Amino acid sequence: MQDKINLIDYEEKYAKEIDDIEKGQWGIWESENEDSIINRIKDVDFIKLAKSNEKIVGVCEGRKIGDAFLIDAIVITSEFQHKSIGSSFMEEVLKYSKEFKLKNIICECVIAKGVMNAEKLMKKYNFEEIIRIEGFWGSLYKQNYICVECGFNPCKCTAAIFKKNIN
What span, in angstroms and rounded, lies between the C-alpha atoms of 99 and 96? Predict the structure, then answer.
């Protein structure tokens, strides 16, 4: 039987599950504490969660910056990847961006060991790659941790910055 997945709005009661999903993807930074999502969402305008049964299995976070929408994160637990959750999140991002009459959507993707984490999603939604920056994440986040993606401290992953014009 296939799990039914619903997108829901953020509620504080899901903060620990969101932190667990993000830490599972990116690891734990030295400066984090138990309420890290609660501290981080102060600058976030948009949070959608993917829920299967009673479990949170994905999160999409973003914010308006000027006339653009910046996707801060799309993270889906490994067992629920490739089930169209990323596409569902992207549809919500597009709807939100159009509602606020924003002109662009910006997304930073990770390239680790030659593989881009959201390449198929970017292509599906006709995002244009603007630039690649080697060592981006390690220079941005200098906390003392070993990157889950590349295995280095500091992280040596490359960022690929994408843009989509909204009509």
Answer: 5
